[in-house]
Write a structure and sequence with these properties.
2 copies of one chain form a homodimer.
Chain A lengths: L2 H8 L3 H9 L6 E5 L2 E5 L3 H14 L4 H13 L4 H42 L6
Antiparallel strand pairs in A: 1-2
Helix pairs in contact in A: 1-2
Chain A binds a DNA duplex (30 and 30 nucleotides) through helix 2 and strand 2.
Chain lengths: ~130, ~130
DNA sequence: CTTGACTGTGGGGTTTCCCTACAGATTATC
DNA sequence: GATAATCTGTAGGGAAACCCCACAGTCAAG
């Protein structure tokens, strides 16, 4: 399949697909098209891209995901390593959650304040 | 005060301080030093930087913060506008929270799975 | 055979800084 | 007073994960 098809199905832009390829996450073969060369992708890249997306949601950067994909293919993680690895991810995610929750609380407080302000003297500028 | 002092107190790098200045968030005056010109900062920039940090935590980009700082100084937001504005921020933050919470749940599930795996057959590779 | 949709490369932009290198200025030490 | 250590400046490249534009060849349909 050509790049547009991959992009459409994977929900990426063509630039995104090329970017993933540059990052070594997916591969393509060359297809001669006159003086031009088109990229031909195996449909399997779609599931690879899915894995990449999942890993991104877990807080990994594309750079980190490359080795991860290879490790997965090589099936060389013990359950112990997997647990450690997931726990690290959980820490990252929980750290982010904490910050956001604090910000949420902060905004709610401000909001209450301004809602009162608005009721009591709706003409004043802040 | 010179740039290093600002950087140290504000918890920014010198590059960061210069960056904030380029973005128009803070200002400095020139101080001749032989053939060189040093940046002289008013201590007030420290509180400005604090405001910037706060706004960043609320999800604003530095680019958005510039006008915001000016608006604040000019005191030209009505309580109604402030409320709308805070509610928008709250939406942004809550959207991020939601995603992270889903990821957290996902990892927890995986983790449980692998912990069981580990107990039942601790020798197998994954 | 022309038109439109597709492909490629190349280069610039975004965001929030970090890092390196080179060079003048200032301060402290001997 | 010379020298060394520490400071300052600018310039330019890099990171992350793409987006966007332009220019140009390719291919399928009408």
């Amino acid at each position: 399949m050509l790049i547009s098809e991959v992009a459409k199905i994977a929900g990426l832009s063509k630039d995104g697909v090329r970017h993933y390829e540059e990052m070594g996450l997916i591969a393509s073969t060359e297809r001669q098209a006159g003086s031009r060369v088109y990229r031909e992708y195996d449909p399997a890249v779609l599931t690879t891209i899915e894995k990449v997306r999942q890993a991104q949601r877990l807080g990994f950067s594309l750079k980190e995901i490359g080795p991860l994909l290879k490790a997965h293919g090589a099936a060389n993680l013990t359950p112990e390593q997997t647990v450690v690895f997931l726990e690290e991810r959980l820490d990252v995610i929980r750290g982010k959650l904490k910050v956001l929750q604090e910000v949420e609380a902060f905004i709610k407080t401000k909001l209450d304040h301004y809602k009162k302000e608005k009721l009591s003297r709706s003409d004043k500028k802040i």
